Amino acid sequence: MMANEHDAAYDDRKPYYVSVQAGSILEDPTAAAYELAITANEEELNRLQELLEEYSSMDEKQVMDYWTNPFIGAGVDNDRLLNEGTDGLIVDIYRLLYELGTDETKHHVATMGLFREGSLQ
């Protein structure tokens, strides 16, 4: 692929509708509830999908660990590390959503309190 072909593919952005809570990325805004609108190319979309899948996997592991061993899990360092991991993933997800987001999405993410003022510019 020539450089200008890659640039054209990179700039081939489409609108998508994202629900972080549901872990979904939709092409049709009427298909299901969504929270944020973005425009992304295939590479960016894949990166976001990977982050959402990783977050979902970590979240499911926390739930399973709690329900299979609720008394031991509360004080274990692994739980703390897992929580820090999911918190870091949420920050990564919302940072990417900010980068790809519409003006409304950027405003929403900027006012969520996840980032220091000025750190998203």
Q: Largest sheet, if any?
A: 3 strands, antiparallel
Strand order of the largest sheet: 2-1-3
Termini, distance in Å?
A: 32 Å
Number of helices: 5
Secondary-structure element series: HEEEHHHH
Radius of gyration: 17 Å
* Overall form: globular
Number of strands: 3
What does this structure look like?
- The protein is mostly helical and 121 residues long.
- The protein has one domain (3-110).
- The chain is 59% helix and 12% strand.
- It has five helices and three strands.
- A three-stranded antiparallel β-sheet has the order 2-1-3.
- Helix 2 packs antiparallel against helix 4 (77-100) and helix 4 packs antiparallel against helix 5 (103-110).
- The longest helix has 27 residues, at 42-68.
- The protein is globular and about 45 Å long.
- The two termini are 32 Å apart.
- Mean pLDDT is 81; it is low at 78-82.
Topology overview:
Layout: H1 3-10, E1 14-19, E2 24-26, E3 36-40, H2 42-68, H3 70-73, H4 77-100, H5 103-110
Antiparallel strand pairs: 1-2, 1-3
Helix pairs in contact: 2-4, 4-5
Please give a quick description of this structure.
Helices cover 59% and strands 12% of the residues. It has helices at residues 3-10, 42-68, 70-73, 77-100, 103-110, and strands at 14-19, 24-26, 36-40.
